[in-house]
Amino acid sequence: MTFSSMLAGENPLTEPIGIYLMQVLLVISISRLIPLSFLKQPRIVAEVITGIVLGQSGLCRVPAFASNLFPPSSFKILSNTANFGLVFYMFLVGLELDPRLILKNFSRAFPISAAGSALPFFASIGASALLYNEYADSGAVAFPPFFTFVAAAMSLTTYPSIARIVTEKKLQTTPLGQTTLAVAAVNDIGSWIFLLFVIGLINNTANTAVGAYIFLTMILYTLFLWFAVRPFLGRLVDLSGSSDSLSQMLIFLTLMCVLISAFFTQAIGASSIFGAFLVGVIVPHDHSFAVNLVEKLEDIMDICFMPLYFFTLGFYARIDLLTSGMDWGMIVLFVAVSGLTKILGHTLAAKFMNNFTWKESFTIGAILNSRGFLEFIILNLGLHANIISAKVFTILLVVVLISDIITGPIASFICPSNTAAITKADTDMMSAEPLTSKVGGSLKLVLPFEATFSRNLNILCYLPNMQSVPGTMALTDYFKSSQLELSVTSLRLIRLSDRTSSVMMATTDTSDTLRHDPVTSIFRSFGILNGIKTASRLGIAPIEEFAEQIVQSAGHCNLIILPWSVAPSGSFLPNNHNLGEGLTVRGAGLLESGGVGGGAGNPVDIAVQALDSVPIDEGLRGPLIEGVQKLATCNVAVFLDRGFGRVAIAPFKTDGALAFSHVTTAEVIGNSHATLAVLPEDAPVGNSKKSVLSYESTRIFLPFFGKMQDCIEALKLTALLSRRKNVHLFVVHVVRAVADASDDRDALYLEGVRAHLVKQNGSNSQVQFEKVTTGAPVAALSEKVKAFLRDGRDLLVLGASIYQQAYEFREWVDKEVTASVLTVQKRGDGAVEH
To answer: Where in the numbering of this chain does the Cation/H+ exchanger transmembrane domain appear (predicted)?
Structure first.
């Protein structure tokens, strides 16, 4: 085999592989450069437009361009590649369609589906008569196959395009969204059944009996796949369910089923796309197998294969033939007839058969007007079967393009993205009633400090990754008290994107995803072991809407905890040490996603993988934290975890080699206040392993700046934390050098706090109060913090306003303080603008 070389002055486009690679490069790059994604338009539209621009209506009208880049002899290879990709794309489409969704909602969805499909079908028959009389060759094709084909192309709906719109509008958890998805799923099954009938008809116009045989054979084959192949695949999935990643053998067997099924349906006279689609439908959705499989295949399909297929559709379009007013009038007619009847049919059925309001019913109808890819496939089949001419193909192609383009804006106009009302907490974490009041010209303590507490503490903990789990568990465990009704809800957020796997997770039951998520599983186990009432929630939103999603998920919680983990220098844990039970420690002992089942196969970790790898916020600031602070109607605590509640490791010798002792995960979870003694580097090391678990006190330092509400809330939160045994609390009252009238009030307030803590803890041996008068608070606090707080196991608590307003203070906390940090913002205060 010889190759043409540009270095030898030869044209590389004379080689078939050279032409093919250049064609693929042009198609993929141009379709990605068309900026329709910014306008919330389906990528299919850009790919079809790419075909129109490069095809027979565009640049291929230039002879030099056509002969060098798209010669007729080269198009066969490109077309075969596109059709091969279409087979696996149909498999992915089948994977998106969960049969459980259809069975669960069939009785509610079928009437809407039937009405929404029947009305545009019969209306399109009348419109197709005009199209047939004006453009069709009556000698080449009879009217029945023509109108059946045209009516099918104008009335069918595909599930994936509907699912994306519903997800973008955040309606998937609402009754409206769930009904729309169910109708789309039923529509999809009906569309494929009708498409099978149409293919049998157009491929066997001379002998309709053959078409009937094909239809019956496909029904029997579908039953065989469902009752014979599906249990076999289900058994394989169950056997691999304990593994976080898909085995190559399981993927191999599944893809072999796709190819065999595609070949069989092609061989009997149906299209290969049916065989691939049916295998996708029967693949079990248990153990998140379908989501994981889609995640494996979707990128290569979306980037390389499918642009080629939809490009070929645009390539065959002949926009240059649409030269008369009649041509464009037909386009307007079909857009109006197919769109209005489709919307009207679904709207009326939703209103009178499911008791939705008129607005909700109209929203369902508008969303279900989306056509998706199935109409494009039907048009391509009709063109190559000579049912329609190139001009009719172009007219209908433009109709489908316009329908897809206008569906999104219409749905947005009728029903903007669902934004659930942000619910105000039933109670504050603590009451805002004042402790002091002027009586007879002097300040008096009018309310005991303990009377300002609510009996219920409902916490929402946002858990972005496995790193946030240990510190959050330790912190919430410190709130546990016999005097407090404590409940904790863990929140996991999945980044919503246009990836198929992301949409699948958004539109399917999230309980299975949460059940297999290692982060929520560990947190749930922690709650059970420690007697804390826990719950889990899963949210799916674009990354820019995470803050809003967190606040909405808080519901009636009165405290939101946003944990953020960093790895400071001088950490008290050895680097890259394993704590046992699969927990990997780096730097400050942060748990990585690779530990405790957090492998790449976990569906939540797959969805947030890119998010986990790039920190959203630095330190205690950033768009996510500021967004939550601005929107929240309850207190917000930002937890900068530098190893709070973690264990330290003591070295020991075994067989003459230096090693490190470790504790089990159960010991860590069950004793969140436990630490391990850290031996100096030059300490003598014994020859046998010793138990080094010790229960040292946790130290909490609070600088109190007086009248600011954030400082008061921080003080109250600290009082809750200090109820735990072995907590040593140090409160420093920072007073400005210039006296202020509020200083006496603050001093009396702190006296009430001190009295409460002494009563609560039985003695004041673990509680220390000190007053500091200074004009340089950072310098004064720095020395005391260094002397009192040891490392990341201890905690610095402060009001959020102090951290946000004072740059010098913020720099000190971020760069010099080695302890963990908890900043508290009072409900409704909002983040401070800079």
So the answer is: 26-414
Considering only CA atoms, which of 554, 562, 535 is closest in space to residue 424? 554
Residue in this structure with the two tokens 């890119």, named with its chain if needed: 610
pLDDT of residue 48: 93
Q: Tokens representing 522?
A: 């560990």
Per-residue pLDDT tens digits for 783-823: 888 889 988 889 999 888 877 666 677 788 878 888 999 99
Residue 772 neighbours by CB distance under 10 Å: 13
pLDDT at position 205 is 58
Task: Please give the pLDDT value at position 82.
Answer: 93
Q: Which of 95, 502, 94 is nearest to 285 (CA)?
A: 95
Phi, psi (degrees; rounded to nearest 5) at 322: -85, 85
Reading the block at residue 669, the tokens are: 């979870």
In this structure, what token pair is assigned to residue 448?
A: 């005991």
User: What residues contact residue 382 under an 8 Å CB cut-off, 6+ apart?
Assistant: 149, 153, 202, 388, 393
Average pLDDT over the chain, rounded to an integer: 77
Contact 379, 360 (CB under 8 A): no
Instruction: Tell me how far apart the alpha carbons of residues 785 and 789 are, in angstroms, rounded to a whole number.
Output: 5
| Topology, domain 20-414 | Na+/H+ antiporter like fold (1.20.1530)
HSE (side-chain half, CA atoms, 13 Å) at 337: 24
Pairing of strands 533-541, 485-495: parallel
Find the range with the poorest average confidence among 173-177, 340-344, 447-451, 551-555: 447-451
**CA 479, CA 613: separation in Å to the nearest integer?**
31
CATH class (in words) of the domain with range 436-443+455-825: alpha beta
Burial 145-171 (b: 16+ CB within 10 A, else e): bbbbbbbbbbbbbbbbbbbbbbbbbbb
Phi, psi of 286 (to 5 degrees): -70, 155
3-state secondary structure of 389: coil
Report the C-alpha dihedral over residues 362, 364, 369, 371, rounded to 10 degrees: 170
461 has pLDDT over 50: yes
Containing 345, the helix (H) or strand (E) segment is helix 325-354
What's the rounded Cα separation, in Å, for the pair 328 and 330?
5
Residues 415 and 363: beta-carbon distance below 8 Å: yes
Confidence of residue 708 (pLDDT cuts 50, 70, 90): low
Would you kindly state where each structural domain of the chain is located, as residue ranges? 20-414, 436-443+455-825
